[in-house]
Amino acid sequence: MIYNIDFDLCAVVISVISLFFILLKKGLQRESNRLLFYIILASLASAVFDIWSSFGNSHIRNYSDTYRDILNFLFLFLHTSTSCLFAWYILVLLGLHRHLSRWKLCLFLLPEVFGIFLPLALNPLFRWVFYYDAAGIYCHAFMIYLLYFCGYLYMLFSIYLLLCHRKLLVQSQHLIALGLLIFGIVPIIVQQFFFPHQLLELFFQSIGIFGYLLAIENLDDIYDFSTRTYNRVAFLRDTAHLLSRQEPFRVLIVKLSRLSYLEMALSDLPYSNGFIASIAEYLHKLYPQQKIYHCIQGHLCLLQPLAENYPSTENALPFPDTHNYRNQEFSIPLEHCSIDVPNEATSLQEILRAIELPYDSQEIPARITAGELPLDKLPPEENPSHRQFTEEMMEMLSAFIGGAALLTPAEWNVFQYYIDKREISEIPSLAFISINTVRKHNKSIYRKLGVSTREELLLYLDLLRRSHRLEELYRACHQKK
After folding, report:
1. 197: CB partners within 8 A, 6+ apart
2. Residue 151 near residue 80, CB atoms below 8 Å
3. DSSP secondary structure of 156-216
């Protein structure tokens, strides 16, 4: 019997492309992405061992039965176990794995252990799954159907989870995940009953996985490598996810003195990113399993389910009072507060309002837990909120306003979304233009305004708000037009 391995060779190529795609574009920062990476690896290994075992089963004189047993075992185990791994991936993606009790976890693994692993492990003794006839030809035994039944069971379980908890996923992810499962089931049925010599199933599975990768956001869209934090888009999505599950959680917020931070950032922008990165690293030491979000300039957040026990910050290493960089000394006061949802906030808007308030505001609707972090406050006469803008800074703002007056109507349309604190990933759908058009306008906007990054652009806008010159920016642009 000669097997056609052409489709498996294509599956190998597609799986390798998928591995590079997820590593370069999607990243492995998130647990769900790491699981998907393992699924692609399992799919690649399945295709390799399918080719290898098919070659051995096609040329029986060159391979011993033991050697063929090992190859067939590895292929069948990896291939049928991929569906179990994908079902666990769906549980992680939906955030349901945290609430699995021990007996539920055992129930989840039951088909994998007793329906896939044990029959294959005992196959050399009993030949329940596959055997070789008198001519040495590879044949399926009756328990091969148990393996595929367990694989179908995990696929159907994944479909059930996606249908019951579809509100916890972005619509594109939900629909493409369903399509991937259906795309994987149908070719298996076709190969088993109609074309046993055409190795179709892994080829279609690899195409489905690659298609699913397109529904996952790029790491560049949600993660800032310079500060090693997630951005506002990731925070909004993850917070909405927790709110939709109606489970209590806590938002921990670390706020920097905004004006001090902006002055430091404008004097040396790369250092401001390094300063945020140092604080994010500090928070990672306290909460190693948590994601750190940089929601607005100088305001970092963490999301913690209240059902879990997190370490106290009382014995944490203190932040230094001052920071030295290139012979300059910076002193930036910090404040730490927390919000319990739903006790102290019930909507995303209320959470954002608490985050966006400056650190020295008296309106924060949350209990202040200063003392958990050793944060020194400046005396009232030196508080940054009472400082006057320097003459040099006012000249810089005037030059920025002059550059904004040079923007074309299309560039101003994009620029307004930055004034409204929108992320770059939100602009295409709001302005009805492509992301490439947004990037093209960004280059021209940065050049005319004399800035080099979006971070620097937002710093200037924040200073304009605090110096009450934002209206002057609007007037300069509208007078020109």
Report:
1. 1, 2, 3, 4
2. yes
3. HHHHHHHHHTGGGS-HHHHHHHHHHHHHHHHHHHHHHHT-TTB--HHHHHHHHHHHHHTTS
Q: What angle do CA 121, 74, 39 make, to 5 degrees?
A: 115
Distances (CA, A) of 166 to 158, 162, 235, 240, 467: 11, 5, 20, 13, 45
d(CA 270, CA 456): 10
Give the whole-angstrom CA distance, residue 446 versus residue 455. Answer: 11
End-to-end CA distance of the chain: 77
Which residues touch 76 (CB under 8 Å, ≥6 apart)? Answer: 120, 129, 130, 144, 147
Whole-prediction pTM: 0.59
**In the 8-state DSSP scheme, what is residue 114?**
I
The beta strand positions in 49-184, using DSSP E, are 130-132, 138-140
What are the structure tokens assigned to 33, written together?
A: 């992405």
Residue type, 112: E
- Considering only CA atoms, which of 73, 86, 157, 158 is closest in space to residue 116? 73
For 365-394, how does the pLDDT look when each residue is reduced to its tens digit (9 = 90+)?
Answer: 333 333 333 333 333 333 343 344 566 677
